[in-house]
């Protein structure tokens, strides 16, 4: 079942490629490549004789008398044209047909078109059941050759390909330009063979590539006005008359010697105008000229068959899937973008350099979807992992809290208040209270280097060992020394803890203080004098064993206040990146020293929060306030 659900999207993706569901968009990328590559080589043997607006103004409205066609054939014969191809359908008799036939018989190089009803594709090629515009028999008999001028319209209406050969009544008819080029190159009609979906073989001399539907792709050499040599139909006739009258001709008819002349209607709003990859308005006669030009220059467009496109889609899609799931997200994004860039560049280079048309649109979309799906899958997995981690962190937070005092100490002569807020669910700040008997209370506060889970685990270890070494001891320096030697002798993963330990003797009004590299405690006396309590010797716990720790001895009185804090208090920042500072804490304690210990704590926390505003908390915050009360 798992294999089925994995294979289903793959089969669907390959099927959409094989059946070319997004062909409309692929055709647009083809047009873009045609426009990007610029002009193609143009044969000097081709000339276009246009029945344009100027000709109709000179001769008259279309269709004009066929005697003009007879005259044109005679002029071109006299000029030495190699072949004359009329892209004009002669389907109804005219009084001037005799003159045309006579001129054609004299020239012996004129080709006329015919048109069939929509040809049907079979295994052996295209077959038509009737004629759409049958050529008059007299024209067909006198012509050098007859070819059809059917042009295929793609789903967007543009002309990009032609049918190379149509069978009608058991006779093969070639496309107009192909029929002419066979005579020009000396290729016998009976030597032509078709390999369906691959090529049309013109004897052994030439192979015209066909797409997998059997069409020949028109390789447009450029835009209409910039491609081929253009001549006015009327100007050619007038120039011949001018030569006869010893006048300077409009057109040098010598230029038409050995030219393959296409004659067609190009006047504005004529029916022989269609859209192509390069232009929205392009005369049909130009399409036939481009077919001939492509064959003469051996300059073809070859579209990769469906299976080749499937192979490219599968291999690159597999590569994108692998890098999207195996590499780190940023690396996967970079390599995927590089892959897409190389793919697009490769398709463009193949087209410009060798005329190879590989599908671009659908593969590109699939590659993006594969990356997006893989990334989404990774995000979902990461979210599940994060939910699991958050669940575990909640448990870890509860466990961590179990290492901290659940209630405040009730020691006569001392009042204690505590505030703690972790930056994450678990933190590295620690504190504890140790009743030592005889109205002595130990107050410890520390800060583990680092944050998160490693710091929390180290904090639990530090609290446990501190309680072990501090039990029954009244010398804070001795406690810190023993704790440091124990932790420093073990592997701590590079972590250490700064720690301050104070023992309050409420009976004798004394304070004994040692410091292991922690911030100095704040002391505010009853007169409002504030200072920081420094200790001479002491470094962070767990770095080096055997280091000395000293202690200070201070007399305390009723109303004295002490604050022990982590750097999350003094280094708290607002949105301007300004630090709160220990001076601000001293000011709050001095101002509100006469209040109860809990009220002093509340004022300090309020001051800190107002300073931070909406700025993010970047470190754990712990604050312990101790106030000396009446010992009676």
Describe the structure.
The protein has 17 helices and 30 strands. The longest helix is centred in the middle third of the chain and has 42 residues, at 361-402. It is α+β, with helices and mostly antiparallel strands and 632 residues long. The strands form eight sheets. Strands 1, 2, 3, 6, 7, 15 and 16 form a seven-stranded mixed beta sheet that branches. It is rod-shaped and about 140 Å long. α4 packs across α8 and α13 crosses α14. β26 and β27 form a beta hairpin.
Topology:
Blueprint: H1 2-18, H2 23-37, E1 46-51, H3 53-59, H4 67-79, E2 83-87, H5 97-107, E3 110-116, E4 120-122, E5 125-127, E6 131-133, H6 137-142, E7 145-148, E8 161-162, E9 165-168, E10 171-174, H7 176-184, E11 192-195, E12 199-202, E13 206-209, E14 216-217, E15 229-232, H8 233-244, E16 260-265, E17 273-274, E18 282-283, H9 284-296, E19 302-303, H10 306-326, H11 329-354, E20 356-357, H12 361-402, E21 414-421, E22 429-437, E23 440-448, H13 452-470, H14 476-488, E24 497-505, E25 510-516, E26 521-524, E27 530-533, E28 551-555, E29 561-565, H15 567-570, H16 582-591, H17 597-612, E30 621-628
Parallel strand pairs: 1-15, 1-16, 2-3, 2-16, 3-7, 5-9, 19-20
Antiparallel strand pairs: 3-6, 4-5, 8-14, 9-10, 11-12, 12-13, 17-18, 21-30, 22-23, 23-24, 24-25, 25-28, 26-27, 26-29, 29-30
Helix pairs in contact: 4-5, 4-8, 7-9, 10-11, 10-12, 11-12, 12-13, 13-14, 16-17
């Amino acid at each position: 079942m798992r294999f089925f659900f994995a294979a289903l999207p793959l089969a669907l993706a390959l099927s959409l490629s094989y059946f070319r569901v997004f062909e409309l968009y692929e055709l647009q990328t083809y047009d873009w490549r045609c426009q990007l590559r610029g002009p193609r080589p143009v044969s000097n043997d081709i000339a276009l004789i246009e029945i344009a607006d100027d000709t109709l103004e000179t001769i008259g409205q279309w269709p004009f008398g066929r005697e003009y066609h007879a005259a044109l054939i005679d002029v071109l014969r006299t000029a030495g044209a190699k072949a004359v191809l009329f892209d004009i359908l002669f389907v109804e008799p005219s009084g001037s047909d005799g003159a045309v036939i006579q001129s054609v018989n004299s020239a012996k190089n004129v080709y006329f078109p015919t048109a069939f009803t929509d040809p049907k594709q079979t295994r052996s090629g295209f077959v038509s059941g009737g004629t759409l515009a049958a050529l008059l028999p007299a024209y067909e008999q006198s012509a050098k050759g007859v070819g059809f001028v059917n042009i295929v319209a793609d789903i967007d209406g543009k002309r990009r390909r032609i049918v190379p050969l149509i069978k009608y009544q058991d006779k093969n008819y070639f496309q107009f330009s192909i029929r002419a080029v066979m005579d020009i190159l000396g290729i016998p009609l009976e030597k032509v063979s078709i390999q369906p979906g691959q090529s049309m073989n013109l004897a052994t001399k030439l192979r015209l590539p066909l797409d997998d539907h059997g069409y020949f792709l028109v390789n447009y050499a450029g835009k209409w006005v910039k491609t081929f040599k253009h001549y006015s139909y009327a100007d050619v006739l007038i120039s011949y008359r001018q030569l006869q009258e010893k006048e300077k001709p409009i057109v040098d008819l010598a230029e038409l010697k050995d030219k393959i002349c296409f004659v067609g209607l190009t006047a504005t709003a004529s029916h022989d105008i269609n859209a192509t990859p390069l232009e929205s308005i392009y005369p049909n006669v130009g399409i036939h000229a481009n077919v001939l030009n492509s064959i003469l220059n051996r300059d073809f467009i070859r579209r990769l068959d469906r299976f080749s496109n499937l192979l490219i889609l599968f291999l690159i899609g597999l590569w994108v899937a692998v890098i999207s799931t195996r590499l780190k997200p940023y690396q996967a994004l970079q390599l995927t973008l590089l892959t897409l860039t190389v793919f697009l560049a490769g398709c463009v280079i193949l087209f410009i350099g060798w005329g190879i048309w590989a599908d671009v649109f659908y593969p590109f979309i699939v590659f993006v979807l594969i990356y997006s799906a893989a990334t989404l899958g990774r995000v979902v997995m990461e979210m599940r992992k994060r939910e699991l981690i958050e669940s575990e962190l909640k448990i870890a937070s509860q466990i961590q809290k179990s290492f901290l005092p659940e209630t405040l100490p009730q020691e006569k002569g001392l009042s204690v208040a505590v505030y703690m807020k972790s930056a994450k669910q678990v933190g590295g700040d620690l504190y504890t209270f140790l009743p030592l008997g005889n109205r002595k209370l130990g107050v410890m506060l520390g800060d583990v280097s680092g944050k998160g889970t490693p710091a929390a685990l180290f904090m639990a270890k530090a609290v446990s060992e501190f309680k072990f070494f501090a039990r029954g001891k009244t010398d804070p320096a001795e406690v810190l020394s023993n704790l440091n030697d124990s932790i420093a002798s073990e592997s701590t993963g590079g972590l250490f803890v700064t720690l301050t330990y104070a023992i309050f003797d409420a009976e004798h009004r004394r304070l004994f203080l040692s410091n292991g590299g922690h911030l100095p405690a704040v002391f505010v006396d009853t007169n409002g004098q504030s200072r920081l309590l420094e200790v001479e010797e002491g470094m962070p716990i767990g770095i080096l064993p055997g280091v000395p720790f000293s202690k200070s001895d201070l007399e305390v009185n009723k109303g004295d206040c002490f604050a022990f804090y982590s750097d999350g208090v003094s280094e708290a920042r607002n949105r301007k990146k300004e630090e709160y500072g220990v001076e601000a804490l001293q000011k709050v304690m001095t101002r509100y020293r006469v209040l109860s210990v809990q009220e002093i704590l509340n004022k300090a926390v309020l001051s800190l929060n107002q300073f931070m505003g909406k700025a993010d908390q970047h470190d754990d915050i712990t604050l312990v306030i101790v106030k000396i009360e009446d010992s009676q």
